[in-house]
Amino acid sequence: MSFDTTGADNQSGDALENLLTENRHFEPSAEFAANAIVQAGEYAKANADRPAFWAEKSRELLSWSKPFTKSLDWSNPPFATWFEDGEINAAYNALDRHVEAGNGDRVAIHFEGEPGDTRTYTYAQLTEEVKKAANAFESLGLAKGDRVAVYLPMIPEAVITLLACARIGAIHSVVFGGFSADALRSRIDDAEAKLVVTADGTFRRGKPSSLKPAVDEALANPGHSVTNVVVVKRNGEDVNWVEGRDVWWDDTVGTASAEHTAVGHASEHPLFILYTSGTTGKPKGILHTTGGYLTQAAYTHRAVFDLHPETDVFWCTADVGWVTGHSYVTYAPLINGATQVMYEGTPDSPHQGRFWEIVEKYKVSILYTAPTAIRTFMKWGEDIPAKYDLSSIRLLGSVGEPINPEAWMWYRRVIGGNNAPIVDTWWQTETGAIMIAPLPGVTSTKPGSAQVPMPGIAVDVVDELGASVPHGHGGYLVIREPWPSMLRGIWGDNDRYKDTYWSRFDGMYFAGDGAKWDEDGDVWLLGRVDDVMNVSGHRLSTTEIESALVSHPSVAEAAVVGAADETTGQAVVAFVILRGSAVEDADIVTTLRNHVGREIGPIAKPKTILVVPELPKTRSGKIMRRLLKDVAEGREVGDSSTLADNTVMNQIAASLKA
Ligand code: WTA
């Protein structure tokens, strides 16, 4: 069976047919169901009164320093508030209270560095580190409401930094380490960050890989808001040093006092900004606030992963640079008092069994990873995981893109011992926490479908006009009611927030994904319906990469599409028209790939760049990406009758053959 991940409008008839005839179901084992944290009654209870349900969960899972009396306020849509009159400290909830409850000796983080170095933090130790970092940041002049850009590898200091910010009410803005100096600078400027926390570098496939030079380059031109850069020593590389601006982590955090009292912040106090690609223009700073976000992150983590904090070992493989690394590495596992694994490196370093070696070593019981990783493991072969003892695994999660039924089946059989339930979780940077997923002790799981809206979440699939479609039909995924961890806006741009998410359908949140209800009433996610690509679970915008290409003097015009790719889900394919003499430049493709790497970051480099004489455009000048996608995916080109010049596709075909 094939499953097309390239967008709802590109679903082939066969793929849809297959979706609707998926009839493999896997019931949870009797033992799993009996011990499950969340039972079936939860749905009815939640849906009877959503705000009351979330208020109850919030009181149950979090410690409020000032209890709230109000749940949801939706009197000024699309601006929601949750638990507005309450006060809470995120770091206190993630740390201190576990120590106060006598669980200070429980391991919070088992850290595994790429070179094989390890560190273990108990809850007591992590609390101490966060208190020191909070004091150190305050001593650098950081105050409540200030923004902090975080440009760190997957090391414990990343979690410590985020929680230290949350503790003092500073707003963190993590920039993934794979983004370039330019991308970092534009995010620093947009959020007007006062502090940058970075490292000398990290390790990638056994070699040092730098971070600090990108920070130096980002801050080279004046006019920025940064007063200090805190640098973690990680890979020991020589670094350039700006006296008065740069400080070593060890010299500030290392020497700071370990006494720090957490005070409550208003529930709607901003917790973080996280930039994500949109369809047009510059990346959007997605804004999340405190009380509602923590409530839904903590609840979904317990319910979807069936977390038993005393006995489970949780491992979410996402980088802290993405939202998954915020909600399911930094916040929810610690709020819930879990023991988790954190790994710095890639799955193939130093060998292709690294993940399974880690699972065996720490007896990981819950593994949460992405379909692109699963497909890579499939490619490497099942004899690799077979060498390790994976019997500790009792639940598997997937996130980031649709999971193909084959990959789902492989994951269950080879990694899950034919027994562990799989939870395919759909959500977004904007939703803050999981929105659609099976409940592992309740739902009979089905390969390829994220299945059921979470209790308390009102998901629907609608047609062009916003009317619900019946079972067996597809359309656009929307959310009909506000939810606790919803974005509160786009940093500094309320109009863009309204336009992007709330203007497509009246009164509904438009997610940008195509979806379908199957005959059983389960949801299938069919990929983005806009110009956002999903490469290895990372969001990239076609427009942004086109702008990067066109900013090169050799490029006259560019069009970018996401083409189906066996491993990464989609791959970036660019069609470019060159200017003048560049046509003769044999290295132009390499030059342009590197240029995109510099402008946005290595993750955005096109896999393929095709030099063409023309681009297919409609009479109104709109590039018909659909036709380019056909070319990129090696299909017969579809209907091109609306092109201004219908010989263009032939010219492209001829130029690619040449
Ligand atoms: C896609 C990642 C299908 C989707 C948490 C969404 C998924 C975008 C799934 C958000 C899934 C995420 N099945 N598609 N289980 N999870 N997506 O903001 O297109 O990096 O809109 O958040 O990823 O990506 P983001």
Summarize the structure.
By secondary structure, the chain is an alpha/beta fold. It has 20 helices and 30 strands. The strands form eight sheets. The chain has an eight-stranded mixed β-sheet with strand order 12-11-8-6-7-14-15-23, sandwiched between helices. Strands 5-4-17-16-18-19-20 form a seven-stranded mixed β-sheet, sandwiched between helices.
Structural descriptors:
658 residues; alpha/beta; 8-stranded mixed beta sheet; 7-stranded mixed beta sheet; 30 strands; 23% strand; binds 5'-O-[(S)-ethoxy(hydroxy)phosphoryl]adenosine
Describe this structure in words.
- The chain has 658 residues and is α/β, with parallel strands linked by helices.
- It contains 20 helices and 30 strands.
- Strands 12-11-8-6-7-14-15-23 form an 8-stranded mixed sheet, with helices on both faces. A 7-stranded mixed sheet has the order 5-4-17-16-18-19-20, sandwiched between helices. The protein has a 4-stranded antiparallel sheet with strand order 21-22-24-25.
- Helix 14 links the parallel strand 18 and strand 19.
- Helix 5 (90-103) packs antiparallel against helix 6 (123-139).
- It starts with 12 loop residues before the first helix and ends with a helix.
- The structure holds 5'-O-[(S)-ethoxy(hydroxy)phosphoryl]adenosine (WTA).
- 5'-O-[(S)-ethoxy(hydroxy)phosphoryl]adenosine binds next to helix 12, strand 20, strand 24 and strand 25.
- 5'-O-[(S)-ethoxy(hydroxy)phosphoryl]adenosine is lined by residues 276, 322-324, 399-402, 424-429, 450, 511-513, 525, 528, 534, 539.
